[in-house]
Amino acid sequence: MKIIVLDKATIGDDLDLSPLSALGELTVYDATSREEVGARIQQAQIVLLNKVRLDATVLQQAPSLRLICVFATGYDNIDLSYARAHGIAVCNVPAYSTESVTLFTVSTALSLFTHLSEYRTFVASGAYSQSGAPNRLTPVYHELQGKTWGIVGGGHIGTRVGEVAQALGARVLIHQRHPHPSFPTVDLATLCRESDVLSLHCPLTEATRGMIGREQLSLMKPSAVLVNEARGAVVDEAAVADAITQGQIGAYGCDVYSTEPFTTEHPFYAIKDLPNVLLTPHTAWGAYEARARCVSVVADNIRAFLSGRLHNRVD
Q1: HSE (side-chain half, CA atoms, 13 Å) at 169
Q2: Residue numbers of the domain that contains 70
Q3: How far from 183 is each of 101, 154, 176, 179, CA to CA, in Å?
């Protein structure tokens, strides 16, 4: 069984791939450009990837392909219609990064909520040493106790973020299509109006694309902290940049972008250095434990497929 890994570098150089090499003839590429994909998968029966896009144009060059496994929960970079029509199985890895993304979400939100980077900069710049004052209390920050933490998307990650927020003393509200079993479920407008922290954890679909736009931002408190850990296009990125520069919201944290990496023309490039903006390079999912877990589940997915069992199939 010929197994190809197309973009190993995106899951880290520190992972042990022996669970995969035990399942077939494994060829590993650190990265694969659009122009290289077709040739590299031409003889493969199993293709493993994270970020590489597999559309019909590419997939038709792989007549032996039987299984695609993505090192991720999301799989919008794979043409499922083509895969279904040509009998190619597709597997993802659900819920492997819940603790990692929760940790990153809460860290990002609390850093912005407490103005932590601004206080650090005050000390690191030498201004604290030169001030002659023993302490500094501006910019003003508030306790999270009694504040409202709104969440879009009450799946594994959203629910876990809600549990941590509640443990920190926040009131938690959820927005999703169906009532949440643990937290009050409200419409999006109510969520925007009432949230002191608003974090996004929903998949990117036609229904969620641009769901946080100018109208929703206009409803938010001028002190609100918005954190996007979903997909870049869940927000109107230009509108968010405007909301930050115009003081319409208090702070913005983001780990995902409609273009990755974003270019100098992207709306966020102009705000990336602002003290109330915390942009990170699609890192939240990637704690070592989460990545190791992901590889283990991909190996399980391959074993299940080879034995004729349905496991984590999304096709």
Answers
A1: 7
A2: 2-94+288-306
A3: 19, 9, 11, 8
The answer to whether position 213 is within a domain reads: yes
Q: Are residues 162 and 217 in the same domain?
A: yes
Q: Name the catalytic one among 25, 36, 260, 289.
A: 260
Judge whether 231 counts as a catalytic residue.
yes
Does residue 312 form part of some domain?
no
- Give the 3-state secondary structure of residue 48: strand
The catalytic residue among 40, 115, 201, 231 is: 231
CA terminus-to-terminus distance, the chain: 21
- Helices (H), ranges, 97-184: 98-113, 116-124, 127-131, 156-167
Specify the number of domains making up the chain. Answer: 2
pLDDT tens column, 4-42: 999 999 999 999 999 999 999 999 999 999 999 999 999
* Residue 315 maps to a domain: no
Task: Kindly report the pTM of this predicted structure.
Answer: 0.91
**CA R_g for the chain:** 22
* Alpha carbon distance 46, 107 (integer Å): 37
Domain identity same for 204 and 224: yes
Contacts of 192 (CB under 8 A, 6+ apart): 150, 198, 212, 216, 217, 219, 220
CATH of the domain at 112: 3.40.50.720
Helices and strands (H and E) in the chain: how many: 12, 11
Q: What integer pLDDT is reported at residue 74 of this predicted model?
A: 85
Residue 311 forms part of a structural domain: no
The answer to whether residue 289 is catalytic is: no
Q: Is 193 designated active site? A: no
In the block, which residue shows the tokens 């969440």?
Answer: 151
User: Of the residues 66, 282, 303, 311, which is catalytic?
Assistant: 282
